[in-house]
Structure formats: C-alpha cells, structure tokens
C-alpha cells in the first residue's frame, strides 16, 4: 500500500482512483502522518433496473381516483 501526501493526492487523484479501483488501496498523509485510507467500494457493477417487480404487483384501474372523496373533504371541507 502506498502513502501519498495531500498535495500529491490532489494532483494525481485520477491516477490514484484508477489504482484503487484495481484493488490497490492507498493512504493520504499530511506531514508524514497518515490521515485516511482510500479503497474501492464493493458496489454492484450495474444499477438495478426499474420494473424489477413487474408481474408481482397489481395496480387497480381505479388507482388515480382512490380516496378522492376523503381528500376533498380534508382539503376543502366538503363532499364531492
């Protein structure tokens, strides 16, 4: 694991990040004193896609009008 000072980390950040992504962690130091360790996160390569529950949830046809009477009463104080 390499140790770099803050100035070098600022000027070489892209290169250091590329190394970290390859699994080579590094330490950022100030005046020779280690401050932080930088390493890649274990995150999924691709984000989950929308629609992953398709076919598992059913939405009623009346979804857009459900509760409209109750909402009108609460906001306007009157029945529709």
Topology diagram in text:
Layout lengths: L1 E4 H6 L1 H9 L4 E5 L2 E6 L29 H9 L4
Number of strand segments = 3
* Spatial arrangement of strands, main beta sheet: 1-2-3
Q: Encode the helix/strand succession as letters.
A: EHHEEH
Q: Proportion of β residues?
A: 15-25%
Amino- and carboxy-terminal Cα gap: 70 Å
Overall geometry comes to elongated
Q: Mean of the pLDDT scores?
A: 88
Structural class: alpha+beta
- Biggest pleated sheet: 3 strands, mixed
Please work out how many helical segments DSSP would assign.
Answer: 3
Helix content: 25-40%
| Low confidence ranges | none
Radius of gyration: 27 Å
Describe the protein:
The structure is a single chain. The protein is α+β, with helices and mostly antiparallel strands. It has a domain at 2-38. It is built from three helices and three strands, in the order E-H-H-E-E-H. The chain has helices spanning 6-11, 13-21, 68-76, and strands at residues 2-5, 26-30, 33-38. The protein has a three-stranded mixed beta sheet with strand order 1-2-3. A hairpin with a 2-residue loop joins strand 2 (26-30) and strand 3 (33-38). The longest helix has 9 residues, at 13-21. It is elongated. The protein starts with a strand and ends with a helix.
């Amino acid at each position: 694991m390499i140790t770099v000072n803050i100035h070098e980390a600022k000027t070489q950040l892209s290169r250091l990040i590329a190394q970290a992504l390859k699994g080579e962690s590094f330490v950022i130091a100030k005046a020779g004193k280690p401050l932080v360790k930088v390493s890649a996160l274990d995150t999924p390569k691709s984000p989950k896609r929308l629609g992953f529950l398709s076919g598992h949830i059913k939405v009623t046809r009346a979804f857009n009008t459900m509760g409209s009477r109750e909402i009108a009463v609460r906001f306007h104080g009157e029945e529709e």
